Amino acid sequence: MKISEIAKLAGVSSAAVSRYLNGGSISEEKKQVIKRVIEETGYVPNHAARSLRRQQSDSVGIIVPRINSDSVSSLVEGVSSVLNHAGYLVVFGNAQNDEKREIEYLRMMQEAKLSGVILMGTVFTPNHIKFFRETKLPIVVCGQYHPSVSCIYHDDRGAAKELTRCMIESGRRSLAYIGAVETDLCVGINRRLGVEDALTENGLSPDELLKVQVRFTVEEGYRGMCEILDGGHMPDGVICATDSLAVGAVKALRERGVDIPGEVSVGGIGGGASGSYLTPSLTTVRLFHRQSGEMAARLILSMIKSLRETPEEKPPVTHTMLGYEMIKRESIAQKECKG
């Protein structure tokens, strides 16, 4: 079936059907009529032909740092739900925690004439910034902030401060922090600053905080906790920059016969499902990864539409910070006073 036949059945012009299919401006009345005819006829648009005419595909890329992560899977679910509903093909790229591979994916997706790219960011190198500033490809970054690109990010500093406050209020004052590498602004630096904010507000010195920096895996959380213990330290509370790091820390403590949460309480940040199945279940600060994915997808669609209507103008850069939710479970408990 051709567009002209859809137009005839809907009682509108072929141009109106074309605008509807391409996300262009059209009255709500015509939109509903065309939608009804398409549903009744089972018409499937020829995306390949449209892409050739526009020199652009109806596809959006998603680049993630790794795939074995609750936060990544939640974000991808959010992005996919919106883009699939809008009729866009999702092209997936796993950078495997390699910043150079992220740049390669960005360039490949640009050369493949994808309509836009959503990047779950970790570290921004000078090559990232150069690409953001020079490309005309619509890009939305999730989980990081940079002034030169549109971003949907989290209140990482506030989340870490809230978790640390919970730990201190439970009587834990000899604290350790397993943090992420500080080439990562939001997870590495901002979460550490949030921990230090809470310490200062409660009369504790950030200089006395035991700190290790690791990568973003369960194995690295385990290694970081072992490094603290092997150094002859036994904190009564361990704050972890992510839930994955907390899972590794719990394993290291339990292997050495440490009671959790009695002797040592542990908390993480992220709020993924895996923490609820840990024993004891993980106290965490939930970040809204799925919602950030949905918002990023809606933003990229808006940018694509804007660029098609006015190709000479680059869509404006926007920044949105999401909140968090404290989830108190079993891994942080009130410290018993010995007397």
Describe the structure.
The protein is an alpha/beta fold. It folds into three domains: 3-45, no CATH class; 55-154 and 289-323, Rossmann fold; 156-287, Response regulator (Rossmann fold), CATH 3.40.50. It is built from twelve helices and twelve strands. It has helices at 3-10, 14-21, 28-41, 47-54, 70-85, 99-111, 126-134, 156-169, 185-201, 218-230, 243-255, 289-309; strands spanning 59-64, 89-94, 116-120, 139-142, 150-154, 175-180, 210-214, 237-240, 265-270, 283-287, 319-322, 324-327. The strands form two sheets. It has a six-stranded parallel sheet, with helices on both faces. Mean pLDDT is 91; it is low at 51-55.
CATH topology of the largest domain: Rossmann fold
Q: For the record, what CATH class of the largest domain applies?
A: Alpha Beta
Tell me the domain tally.
3
Instruction: Tell me which CATH architecture of the largest domain applies here.
Output: 3-Layer(aba) Sandwich
How far is it from the N-terminal to the C-terminal residue, by CA? 84 Å
Keywords:
single chain, 6-stranded parallel beta sheet, 339 residues
Q: What's the arrangement of secondary structure elements?
A:
Elements: H1 3-10, H2 14-21, H3 28-41, H4 47-54, E1 59-64, H5 70-85, E2 89-94, H6 99-111, E3 116-120, H7 126-134, E4 139-142, E5 150-154, H8 156-169, E6 175-180, H9 185-201, E7 210-214, H10 218-230, E8 237-240, H11 243-255, E9 265-270, E10 283-287, H12 289-309, E11 319-322, E12 324-327
Parallel strand pairs: 1-2, 1-3, 3-4, 4-5, 5-11, 6-7, 6-8, 8-9, 9-10
Antiparallel strand pairs: 10-12
